[in-house]
Amino acid sequence: MASQKALIIPAKGSPFTLVERPIPTPGPGEVLVKLAATALNPIDYVMRLNGFAVTEYPAEAGIDGAGTIEALGEGVEGTGRSKGDRVLFERLKFSLDYGTFQQYALTDAKRTYKIPAALSFEEASTIPLCLTTAGLALYGPHGPRGGAALTAPWTEGGLEKYKDQPALVFGGSSSVGQFALQFLKLSGFNPIIATASAHNEAYVRAAGATHFIDYHTTPYTALPEAVSKITSTPFSLVFDAISNEETQRTAWGLTGAGGTLAIVRTPVVGEPNVVLDGGRRIAFVWGGVNYMDAEPAGREWADKMYAGVEAFLMDGRLRPNKWEAVTGGLAGIPGALEKVGNLQSSGAKMVARIDSA
Ligand SMILES: NC(=O)c1ccc[n+]([C@@H]2O[C@H](COP(=O)([O-])OP(=O)(O)OC[C@H]3O[C@@H](n4cnc5c(N)ncnc54)[C@H](OP(=O)(O)O)[C@@H]3O)[C@@H](O)[C@H]2O)c1
């Protein structure tokens, strides 16, 4: 049986281990992707550390993948995905065959995006998880998995629908923050205010921020005053892409009546995904469409999102993150993850080239 190199987590808390394991066979509706590049995410770090999201051991981390379709499962032929297509995808299942820290992974054919010709595999690999997280947080339906239920820019009347409403993004240079800024711009929000470190100002502005605040020289305690000098209109949308206790408290304090605070980590300011005081909500999102696929209305929503986002990727209105190379292929991932897991990768996604692992 053909085998591949894979970086596995043998048991809870144990170090990553490089092994040989079989190349899996795609099931109905699935494709086998020969991975060229994988991007690292903070979740990969906690999966190894404490078993977050792990359903069985040995486990495979790795959420973001970009590569070439190698084989089609039953029923995929004729659906728009063919052998040899360059695709990017977010891991949708947590079992071993679906992780992206290995040379071949399975995924759902419908939940792949074709990679625009202008993008490298490395660039493409920066997109999946954090784009989905930002997209679901802003446009996903209200419900237990979060979503501010804004009209998405890929639906009729959605482009620039929120013209001249202010938005605030905490962590504009993070991967999630970058995609939140791009979506908010497509939705027409203005001004769009973002926090980051000074050396990332140009990156944050390029993604869509109209105003930039350095959170080192303007600490979060001083942010409300700094923001009041830019706009006096209450925020209907605040996106906290960092979501530590300090950012969440500051962000919630700035969320206007009827507005939504989107967060990406465990809520500390109130119950998520219900209506709170002043008609406000905390949208605590889980950045995967797998739960949407569990019922027909969710599937329909996700189908539209995939078609819409693919069109924006193709015409360049959605762009990948800046990236930095992980040296050493799969073997270099554990070292690089220490930095990523502590949010110390500043303004760049760490990407490992794994086709020559
Ligand atoms: N719920 C979900 O489904 C989901 C999905 C993806 C990610 N997440 C979570 O979202 C968070 C961000 O993930 P990511 O992949 O986007 O991270 P990332 O890109 O690796 O984050 C690094 C960035 O964080 C910024 N940062 C750190 N502390 C900050 C602060 N106090 N204020 C503003 N910016 C700050 C840094 O900005 P500067 O260098 O400019 O200072 C740096 O550019 C993580 O906690 C992650 O676990 C959740």
Automatic annotation (TrEMBL):
All copies of domain Enoyl reductase (ER), residue ranges: 13-352
User: Which GO terms label this protein's molecular function in UniProt?
Assistant: oxidoreductase activity, acting on NAD(P)H
Task: Report the InterPro entries cross-referenced here.
Answer: ADH-like_C, ADH-like_N, ER, GroES-like_sf, NAD(P)-bd_dom_sf, Trans-enoyl_RdTase-like
SMART domains referenced in this protein's UniProt entry, alphabetically: PKS_ER (SM00829)
What is this protein called in UniProt? Answer: Enoyl reductase (ER) domain-containing protein
